[in-house]
Amino acid sequence: MTEAGSTVRLEVLRSEPGDVAAEGSRRDVFDVPFDDRTSVLDALQWVKDHADPTLTFRWSCKMAVCGSCGVMVNGRPVLGCETFVRGYRTSGLVVEPLAHAAVLRDLVVDTDTFLGKLAAVKPWLVPDGATRLPLAGPAGAAVALGAEPGAPDPSTGAGEAASQAHGPASGSVQTPGELAAFRDFAQCIDCMLCYAACPQLEPAPDFLGPAVVATARRWDEDSRDGGELARADVLDTENGAWPCIQVGACTQVCPKGVDPARALRDAQRVAAETWDERERRRTTQG
Questions:
Q1: 233-270 burial, b if ≥16 CB within 10 A, otherwise e?
Q2: What is the pTM of this model?
Q3: pLDDT of 265-277, one tens digit each?
Q4: Which domains, and CATH codes, for the chain?
């Protein structure tokens, strides 16, 4: 238990709009009271309320849902609302803005670049935007996406399942298995912690990045979506999925248990497997 009256040393990297990183920034230090329930976000709010009202940071829900309070704490990207000060009572805290993002002021970073990358992969349901790739069955035969092993083939009209089409025509009806295919990727809250952790954003700042590729895979794996080939055209580029070298830091820091590293592996595999089909489509359409 934390003793009454305990304080922790909180060091915050400060900067003004237009500051050049190492030249205009400064570090301010505060002694912040805390107990076992004090989060990093609570500590920052205490500074704003009691020590320096100009301290600037983002937050909204305080429930690890909105993803807006991401910061670097002692060099590691975390959500301020779910990271507790008690774990740093001895070392103290050094709080900085998320890495690999332009800083607007203090702990607030620009999200426009990230949102632009996100829009590039069409992060929405594309009902009939492209030909859906069939999955290869055990004997090399094509099976309907999302079909359960041994289930009647909806295209043949056999059995009760014939009335529940798979793929873009199925509307909003999905099996538990179809939901499970993308559910984990759908937990992403766009907090950008994975971008701050990714070592490839330093040498390749135009890399689409972990969260964007995970979101693309979320829709690719959705049995109602038909945009897989269009997204593959975006992912199969120099700055698409290929800069990833599978360090796995993105997966380690994700606060929602998403596995962006797996999404990147899958995107690279799909890009390689669908290259011929995409070339054929381009040739036909051209």
A1: ebbbeebbbbbbeeeebbbebbbeebbbbbbbbbbbeb
A2: 0.81
A3: 999 999 998 888 8
A4: 7-109 (3.10.20.30), 112-133+166-285 (1.10.1060.10)
